Amino acid sequence: DAGVIQSPRHEVTEMGQEVTLRCKPISGHNSLFWYRQTMMRGLELLIYFNNNVPIDDSGMPEDRFSAKMPNASFSTLKIQPSEPRDSAVYFCASSWAGGADQPQHFGDGTRLSIL
Amino acid sequence: GESVGLHLPTLSVQEGDNSIINCAYSNSASDYFIWYKQESGKGPQFIIDIRSNMDKRQGQRVTVLLNKTVKHLSLQIAATQPGDSAVYFCAENNQGGKLIFGQGTELSVKP
User: Fold this and answer.
1) What is the pLDDT of residues A78-88, one digit of tens each?
2) How many angstroms away from the CA of A104 is the closest CA of chain B?
3) Are B32 and B20 in contact (CB under 8 A)?
4) What 3-state class would DSSP assign to A62?
5) pLDDT of residue B2
6) Residue A12: which of A78, A86, A73, A65 has the closest Cα?
7) Which of A104, A110, A111 to mutate to test the interface with B (most CBs of B within 10 A)?
8) Do A40 and B6 touch (CB under 8 A)?
9) Which residue among A43, A97, A103 places its CB closest to the CB of B46?
């Protein structure tokens, strides 16, 4: 079975540019999560969606960050304009929220470098 | 300049030995816990979970123990193999739909 698919796997761009990260959750999962991982702060939840609706975006660092989920099989995380401190690995995860307590399954991440 | 980052606890074991990785969680109301394994260049991979109405759960070569009295979780890996080398994270469900992750423990298996 296909897991969570993220693209691109690596992104290198100059500061000020717009960056768009993409995620395809596991088919049938109705919750989607965006995380950021850095050496300094570990794994941080940025935002999560249930049934395509944003539930909690309190982890989004600034207005430069935005996320959308136009349908059940696709989500984007956008940074505009990007800054060097945004450099990190960004993970998408999905889970099935229909039952009590289901694990989140992660993609392999996008390694983002802002020069 | 000097970079400062998280200093992960490290556990070094001999191949074939058993490993025990510990985790203290923060919220006494958390009712669901998960262990993840993260290899270099990959995302966290689900290993095993446990609900708060249980004290122990076993999988293939792995056992998770939960002590709610002291808010402690442990992961035991039997007959540790080189392929088990990775960073291991515990996570707790804070009942708000979110997982709270620990800082991780790096397991190094010596052949």
Assistant:
1) 999 999 999 99
2) 8
3) no
4) coil
5) 40
6) A86
7) A104
8) yes
9) A103
